[in-house]
Every structure is written in C-alpha cells, then in structure tokens.
Amino acid sequence: MAIHPIEFRYGTPEMKRIWEQENKQQRMLDIESALAQAEGELGIIPKEFADEIKAKANTKFVTVERVSEIEAETKHDIASLSKGLSEVCEGEAGEYVHFGATSNDIVDSSNSLLLKDSIEVLEEKIERLTKIILKLAEENKMKVCIGRTHGQHALPTTYGMKFAIWADELHRQYDRLQHAKDNVCLGMMDGAVGTTAALGTQGWEVHKKVSEILGLKPAPITNQVLQRDNHVEFVATLANIATTLSKIALEVRNLQRTEIQELGEFFDPEKQVGSSTM
User: Fold this and answer.
1) 59-96, pLDDT tens digit by residue?
2) Domain end (from 99, 117, 133)
3) pTM flag (> 0.85)
4) Does residue 107 sit in the same domain as residue 214?
5) What residues make up the domain containing 132?
C-alpha cells in the first residue's frame, strides 16, 4: 500500500515488505496473540483458549479482505481486526480475543514491531556502507588530492582521510540509531486510559509479559498511547542519518563533474541510460 506518490519507485524491497498491508495486519495479530498468551500463562483466561487464539492469529485465517469487509460496516480498524480473529476461533475462545485491551495497545505495540524490523534493515545497511567506506579509506590512505574550503583549492589532503571522516560520521549515526531504537520500540498493554483497570491486579504483569513475548521493552508508563516524544526523536535521527548520506552523495556528485573528474560511479555503457535525450 503506497503512502507517498513516489514511495514505490524509491522504496527498498525490504521496507516495502515490512510496511505492506498484510504484514502490518500480521503484526497487529501478533499483539493479539501475545496478549492471549500472557493472559493464559497468568490464569486470566483458560490456557486452551489462549492456545486457540494464538493458532488463529495469522493472516491465513484472518485475511486482509475479511477485515476490510468488517471495517466497511464498523468503521473501526481494531474492532474489525478483533472481530475477524474472534470469528475464526473454535469454541468459546473467540470471546476472549482482545480481552482487557484498548485499540492503541494493538496499534502502538504493532507499530513498535514494525519500527524494530525497519531499524534492523537500516542497521544492516549502515554497517555495510561503513565497511565499504572504511575499505576505501584504507586503500586510498596515501592517495593525495587537493583539499577545498569554500569550494576553493586549499592545501593537500588524502582521499583516505575524506573517506575516514565519512565512516566516522556513519559510526556516530549508527550509535544514534541504537539510542532511538531503545526508546521507540516499546510495548504497551494498559487499557483505555493506561491504568490497566480492566485486568485488575494482574494488569501490570500482563503489560510486562506481552512485551517480553514480543521482544519489546515495556513502556514505563502510558495513558491511551505511547508518548510521542520518542517517535519525534526517532524521526529526527532518521533526518540526521539522511543528512549524512546526502552530504556523501553531494560530494561524490560534485567530484565527478566533467571539469573535475576526481571520483566516479559505476556506469554500464552497454545497458544503462542516464538521459532520455542525450
């Protein structure tokens, strides 16, 4: 499902798989499954019902098409999801789907899983790029080039130093991403206003157990939603990383200009096209 007119031209296959509708729905079902498992382990709902909910919390049973049909009537995404899961469960298990939860317990926790998956893709790409640039730095540590300040010739430097600076900055960006990941990938299962009142004295145990099952850090405190300052920090970190990548790309672009030609990108003259006119 496209979220931007150019997303499917420039989005990567890995990110598209994470954010396409069926996977997003599966992640929400994963939350419903973890909730049932936690409640089954704590004796809040019968264990056999928890097992049945877990077995059916899959888009093979709860299809995107069926949930969309229900949502056309209910006008509510999570109510439609839980109804779709309830109707495929055997016996009385369906009555215990979504027990004690509110909509954003499902939405925010599933978004945390999606963000975690996305960050893992970014981590791998940053690590790979850093290794490539470090290799270039080692190979070119003695290759002298002119240094420039304000775009003008200054004093000699080396390409190895230029590449090492990029690698060092990417390393810092990786650390920033780790910090943002730790803060944004949180689980919650706290009910309508965050008090866990619907689950009584075991509410906080359910909250922690659900996060444990999902591999998320339990949020220390919430109301209806996870607090958004962590998401703002994460988006700011992405912008910071993008700035580094833009800086590197612009330097490569500038240094491969015809009148400079110090750097270059691979171009296959047999197949590749750089212009529809020239």
Assistant:
1) 999 999 999 999 999 999 999 999 999 999 999 999 99
2) 99
3) yes
4) yes
5) 101-278
